[in-house]
């Protein structure tokens, strides 16, 4: 009796420790399209402190991979789409890639790499046929390279695909099948993955369903909504994630792959850059998602829960905004690892912020009180600032969309000033700006805070080129932000008091 009691006590202790250490943990995406990245060792500590034990990288970057060495984290390493063509052209190219980006990190750094994600949503309709002929050959060559390296059992290949690779003629999940134009290709890929014991990875975005269709029932995007359910035979669907996932399950079943393992590679909700992208909605969605993950809930057609990688860990201010300004705001944490909004991680645990982050001085660049919004040089100054820095929070319905004309200018000036590491000359906008030590951020509102950022101190000021002058070429490191200007400047101009 005493021995049995000790065994039960030991099991309870092990379970308790397992939960606290995230053994049953969470998975997320760690992107690097940021002008001021957190040091990788701080990110790994952030992941572990919050119960994440699986992480997906979009490419094989040395810093994150080395930091993940001997961390206990399971890693999925991505291959960008622009590498698909060379990998498809030669097995030797694939062998070199695997040797450099997989084998070496496993053997030398102790990185627990479990998957190689070949491409990222390569069959998006918007890509036309760009990657149609290179994705599958690249997948085959990478698989062959892993086998040759002796990693065929340890590391599995997969392809993260977008939900637009399948559809349903009936409008119900049970009618799911692969898109007619790529049906045969998808079957070949799925068969190849199945033969090699590898999963298929799907990215599902209820936010995009809501954002793209003004008539989409909003509550259906969430897990606790009251929208009219979809009845599919004996199954009732109350949210779009279940319905979308099961549409893929139906497509697999129809084509003879009922037991194909599925990973949800990306799912989340942004907090800025669109009227539907705010802290209230993001918290509602991600809390519901976490509760499903923690409780081990699957979908009606797949009761066993899949691995689900939250998108994303951190905001990325240098991502392309082609899909929308919200692209830079998917993180459950801000770019610096600070907490955006509370989340319950189970057992009463909340989010833990990043530790050991160092910042630039507490000073901001704002529009001078003596400057006038009627100054003819103001439009050029704001346009310039938003060409080189992230101004997506100024858009309609965004966190800083309520600012007056002077506030708009100050926000743009400060983002440029911080992006350029507060360097001398980076707060000089035609005599329209000054540096202040008083935080200009407005008071928080119900949707969240409009933050006038202070960037991370990268400790490399002397190694970076000086801030470009107003007369300098605008095609430089922060060129990816140019797409924002066409949207924001007319908006700002319309708000100015002339």
UniProtKB/TrEMBL annotation:
Xref: Gene3D superfamilies: 1.20.58.1040, Glycosidases
PROSITE patterns per UniProt: GLYCOSYL_HYDROL_F17
InterPro entries: GH, Glyco_hydro_17, Glyco_hydro_17_plant, X8
Keywords (A to Z) from UniProt: Disulfide bond, Glycosidase, Hydrolase, Signal
GO cellular component, one term: side of membrane
SUPFAM superfamilies attached to this UniProt entry: (Trans)glycosidases (SSF51445)
Family: Belongs to the glycosyl hydrolase 17 family.
Name of the protein described by the UniProt record: glucan endo-1,3-beta-D-glucosidase
Organism: Ziziphus jujuba (Chinese jujube)
């Amino acid at each position: 009796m005493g021995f049995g009691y000790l065994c039960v006590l030991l099991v309870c202790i092990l379970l308790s420790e397992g939960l606290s250490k995230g053994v049953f943990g969470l998975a997320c995406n760690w992107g690097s399209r940021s002008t001021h990245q957190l040091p990788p060792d701080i990110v790994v500590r952030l992941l572990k402190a919050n119960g994440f034990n699986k992480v997906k990288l979009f490419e094989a970057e040395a810093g994150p991979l080395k930091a993940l060495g001997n961390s206990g984290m399971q890693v999925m390493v991505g291959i960008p789409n622009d590498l698909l063509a060379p990998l498809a052209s030669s097995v030797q190219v694939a062998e070199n890639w695997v040797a450099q980006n997989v084998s070496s990190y496993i053997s030398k750094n102790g990185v627990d790499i479990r998957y190689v994600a070949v491409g990222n949503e390569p069959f998006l309709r918007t890509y036309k046929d760009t990657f149609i002929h290179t994705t599958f050959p690249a997948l085959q060559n990478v698989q062959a390279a892993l086998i040759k390296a002796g990693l065929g059992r340890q590391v599995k290949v997969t392809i993260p695909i977008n939900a637009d690779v399948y559809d349903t003629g009936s409008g119900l999940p049970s009618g799911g099948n692969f898109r007619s134009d790529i049906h045969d290709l998808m079957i070949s890929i799925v068969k190849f993955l199945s033969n090699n014991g590898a999963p298929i990875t799907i990215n599902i975005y209820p936010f995009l369903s809501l954002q793209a269709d003004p008539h989409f029932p909003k509550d259906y995007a969430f897990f606790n909504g009251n929208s009219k359910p979809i009845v599919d035979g004996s199954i009732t669907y109350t949210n779009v994630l279940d319905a979308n996932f099961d549409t893929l399950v139906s497509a697999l079943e129809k084509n003879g792959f009922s037991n194909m393992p599925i990973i949800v590679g990306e799912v989340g909700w942004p907090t800025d850059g669109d009227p539907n992208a705010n802290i209230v909605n993001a918290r509602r969605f991600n809390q519901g998602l976490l509760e499903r993950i923690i409780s081990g809930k699957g979908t009606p057609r797949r009761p066993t829960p899949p691995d689900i990688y939250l998108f994303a860990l951190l905001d990325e201010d240098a991502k392309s905004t082609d899909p929308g300004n919200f692209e830079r705001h998917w993180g459950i944490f801000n770019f610096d690892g600070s907490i955006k909004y509370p989340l319950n991680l189970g057992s009463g645990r909340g989010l833990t912020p990043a530790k050991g982050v160092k910042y630039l001085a507490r000073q901001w660049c704002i529009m001078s009180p003596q400057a006038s919004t009627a100054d003819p040089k103001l439009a050029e100054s704001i346009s310039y600032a938003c060409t080189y820095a992230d101004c997506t929070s100024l858009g309609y319905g965004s966190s800083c969309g309520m600012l007056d004309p002077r506030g708009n200018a100050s926000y743009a000036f400060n983002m440029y000033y911080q992006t350029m590491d507060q360097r001398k000359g980076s707060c000089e906008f035609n005599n329209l700006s000054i540096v202040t030590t008083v935080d200009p951020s407005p008071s928080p509102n119900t949707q969240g805070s409009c933050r006038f950022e202070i960037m991370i101190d990268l400790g490399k000021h002397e190694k970076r080129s000086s801030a470009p002058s107003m007369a300098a070429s605008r095609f430089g490191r922060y060129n990816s932000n140019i797409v924002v200007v066409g949207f924001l400047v007319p908006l700002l101009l319309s708000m100015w008091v002339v």
